[in-house]
Design goal:
Elements: E1 33-34, H1 43-56, H2 64-77, E2 81-85, H3 88-98, E3 104-108, H4 114-120, E4 125-129, H5 140-146, E5 151-157, H6 166-176, E6 179-183, E7 191-192, E8 195-196, E9 203-207, E10 220-224, H7 227-236, E11 241-243, E12 246-247, H8 258-269, H9 271-289, E13 295-297, E14 311-315, H10 317-320, H11 324-333, E15 336-337, H12 352-355, H13 364-370, E16 373-376, H14 384-399, H15 401-407, H16 410-413
Parallel strand pairs: 1-15, 3-4, 3-5, 5-6, 6-9
Antiparallel strand pairs: 2-10, 7-8, 9-10, 11-12, 13-14, 14-16
Helix pairs in contact: 1-8, 2-8, 3-4, 3-7, 9-14
The structure holds ligand T4K.
Ligand T4K binds next to helix 3 and helix 4.
Length: 418
């Protein structure tokens, strides 16, 4: 392949002209920079907790670390109950079941597929709803139009930590007698109208997966102010046990282990530092990408508390001169492992694609956005200098879009690859 004479520098004003890795040059990074590299708290504190749980020989089944984690989460979020689980998908499944959802439940298609799977897994039909104009979360007006006699609930998603329109959704749910819950996998530490995520709807579900703002290796939680719901969730995530040999409910094994709780507690203690690092990266990306034609960085509402865990860019192919997929391919060659979160939308994934082949007709905004978004590396595994370098690369790519298009493999130019 020919080597392109193209820029890859971090300098804001003068991108320079070395070679892009996609065309045979040296990658900008020798070691990949990831989206979702775990945020790690104080390693020594974590190790002390792990030593303690080994000394106690209490590894799972509601050990002291799980109890402490639940209590500290509830205090932090400001809800009466938090029940932690092995992951957020299981937490969603349990919450859906504990709320006795059935028939149809309205969800966005622009989300990680777990939101939809948690329903389909229980033979509940996810009805995909479009996102609001100019935003990434459920459009309450569209929700209303999708309600049928079979609808029992709505799951809003606070995608990338930007909260759904909770008040409007609550009004729809109240008016139509539906349960409302939120997939808050991305939104720990965020607020809406100054109120912490965790207390909206009947319950909210957090994820503590390794890639999340706060991690517990794997983990999830159901947060709620409802005593009865909390009790049902607690029973369901432990086989329905209400005592040593007394089962009073059907249930699964959705328990969090002690080692996960050790990590979760350590992450929670590091929360302020993690936000600070995320914020530095976010601001640096904003500076780097300001004014670049066709690239718009997702904004956070500065009046609210945000965790800044996701750096998301929308690519306007006409203005940038490159498609989102071209940009991702160029960046990945440089070892900048940008992700197409959340492409192509759940409705275009199986089994939904086969079950609802025409769903896209009602999801024009979702289809528009899923073809344009990409997430950039941030978090613990990234240094501010890396952000400057990635920004410089992207500016250079856009500045030299015509040249890149010219050198792009023929199949791409013919439109066989996007
Ligand atoms: N609802 C929403 C809205 C969600 O986004 C998710 C999960 C859920 C519900 C369900 O939550 P959980 O049941 O997982 O608790 C990842 C995560 O596995 C998933 O938790 C997350 N959302 C989703 C957005 O991302 P993948 O398939 O993209 O993961 P993977 O392995 O490609 O990793 C992502 C990036 O992170 C890679 O670039 C590598 C990096 N990474 C990953 C891991 C695991 C690391 O650097 N270190 C690591 O340990 O799904």
């Amino acid at each position: 392949m020919r080597t392109a004479n193209l820029p890859q520098t971090s300098d804001r004003e003068a991108p320079g002209t070395p070679h892009l890795a996609y065309f045979g040059g040296e990658p900008a990074f020798a070691v990949p920079r990831h989206v979702g590299a775990p945020n790690l708290g104080d390693r020594a504190v974590l190790m002390r907790r792990i030593e303690g749980l080994l000394d106690r020989r209490w590894l799972t089944n509601r050990g002291p670390l799980v109890e402490e984690f639940e209590q500290r989460l509830a205090e932090r979020v400001g809800v009466r109950h938090v029940v932690v689980t092995c992951n957020a998908t299981t937490a969603l499944e349990i919450a859906v079941r504990a709320l006795d959802l059935r028939g149809e439940v309205i969800v966005p298609s622009f989300t990680f597929v777990a939101t939809a799977h948690a329903l389909q897994w229980q033979r509940i039909t996810p009805v995909f709803c479009d996102i609001e104009p100019g935003g990434y979360t459920l459009d309450p007006e569209r929700v209303e139009a999708l309600i049928t006699p079979r609808t029992t609930g709505i799951i809003g998603v606070h995608l990338f930590g930007r909260t759904a329109r909770v008040a409007e959704l609550q009004r729809v749910a109240d008016r139509r007698g539906l349960q409302l819950l939120f997939d808050a996998a991305h939104a720990f530490g965020c607020t809406r109208d100054g109120r912490s995520v965790g207390g909206f709807g009947r319950c909210e579900i957090f994820s503590f997966h390794a890639t999340k703002f706060l991690n517990a290796f794997e983990g999830g939680a159901v947060a709620t102010d409802d005593d009865d719901l909390a009790e049902r969730v607690r029973l369901m995530q432990n086989f329905g046990f209400a005592g040593e040999d007394r089962v009073i409910h059907v249930g699964v094994n959705g328990k969090m282990t002690e080692v996960s709780a050790a990590m979760g507690l350590t992450s929670l203690e590091a929360e302020a530092g993690i936000v600070a690092v995320n914020r530095i990266h976010y601001d640096a990306y904003r500076r780097e990408l300001r004014g670049v034609p066709g690239l718009s960085l997702m904004r956070y509402d500065e009046r609210e508390r945000n965790n800044y865990q996701y750096v998301v860019v929308e690519v306007d192919r006409d203005e940038a001169g490159l498609s989102r997929d071209q940009l991702v391919a160029l960046l990945r060659a440089e070892n900048v492992l940008a992700r197409r979160y959340f492409h192509p939308g759940c409705h275009r994934m199986e089994p939904y694609r086969s079950l609802f082949p025409h769903a896209g007709l009602l999801l024009p905004r979702t289809e528009h956005v899923t073809d344009r978004v990409l997430a950039l590396p941030t978090g613990g595994g990234v240094e501010p200098a890396d952000v400057a370098r990635i920004g410089g690369l992207m500016r250079g790519m856009v500045a030299h879009a015509a040249e890149i298009r010219d050198r792009w493999p023929h199949a791409v130019r013919r439109g066989e690859v996007t």
